[in-house]
Amino acid sequence: MKSNLIIIGAPGSGKGTQSKRLVKECGYVHISTGDLLRSEIEQKSELGLKIKSIMSQGQLVSDDVVFELIRSNVDLSLKKYIFDGFPRNLSQASFLKDLLNNFIYKAIYVKVDEQNLIRRIINRRVTPDGKFIYNLISNKPKVDGICDITGAALIQRSDDKEAVVKSRLDIFKSEAGPVIDYFKSLNKLVEIDGDLEEEKVYKEILKQIN
Ligand code: AMP
User: Fold this and answer.
1) Is residue 15 annotated as a catalytic residue, yes or no?
2) Is the CB of 130 within 6 Å of ligand 1?
3) Ligand 1 pocket, residue 61 CB under 6 Å
4) What does 139-190 look like in DSSP terms, one character per residue?
């Protein structure tokens, strides 16, 4: 039986790419709290209006809001999930542990060397909708600046610029450290070498889920 997964990794660790593949090939449902929150903002829902300025400042939305989103989007008795961007602090970690209590799960930490992360992020180029991701070193488009699939002009996300990357990595370290230690203490944490090439990282994750 497949484990539910909590995937933990810094920006640029490749966890988004790996999650997409696990969804496609293994039937997981991907729960990204960042995506769920962004969609509330796009829909201009009451919640969306409340959280917009908090998110634009890079601060965490309140735990209650995120717990409600998880409760209304997750049914562990029906599906297997990959939790991405959640939990971000100890109270969220404890909430998720209780939720997963009667189900199989693992926390997977995709660990990547900091210099490698910076190199990957500043060379990342995406379609404006963020759906297709390239890298100027390891995964170039066939024609410079153009998406192979959609023909759209590729852009650099504003938060992928070098000046912002360092602070995003600092925020990740302070958020993720306690969460990693928490799942380690429960014997639920598996660390994977994210400096390996994409295919090898995927194989390592597959070994953990069955
Ligand atoms: P992400 O897409 O995971 O980088 O998240 C983008 C933003 O959404 C974060 O900077 C937070 O403002 C908010 N957010 C995402 N996940 C959470 C969470 N688990 N708890 C609180 N805020 C979150």
Assistant:
1) yes
2) no
3) yes
4) B--SSTTB-TTT-PBPB--GGGSHHHHHHHHHHHHHHHHHHHHHHHHTT-EE
Q: Known catalytic residue: 71? A: no
Which amino acid does the sequence have at 27?
G
From 80, 106, 120, 124, the catalytic residue: 124
- Any atom of ligand 1 within 6 Å of the Cβ of 89: no
- Which amino acid appears at position 72 of this protein? S
**CA distances from residue 102 to 4, 74, 84, 92, 184 in whole angstroms, order as listed:** 11, 14, 20, 17, 18
Which residues make beta-bridge pairs with 131? none
Q: Is 157 a known active-site residue?
A: yes
CA distance linking residue 103 with residue 189, whole number of Å: 15
Distance CA 80, CA 9 (A): 20
Element (H, E) at 7: strand 4-9
The pLDDT tens digits along the chain (210 residues) read: 689 999 999 988 999 889 989 999 999 999 999 889 988 988 999 989 999 888 887 788 999 999 999 999 999 999 999 999 999 999 999 999 999 999 999 999 999 999 999 998 999 999 988 788 899 988 899 999 999 999 999 999 877 888 878 888 888 999 999 999 999 999 999 999 999 989 999 999 999 887
The answer to whether the CB of 13 is under 6 A from ligand 1 is: no
β strands within 22-175, DSSP E: 29-32, 81-84, 105-111, 124-126, 133-135
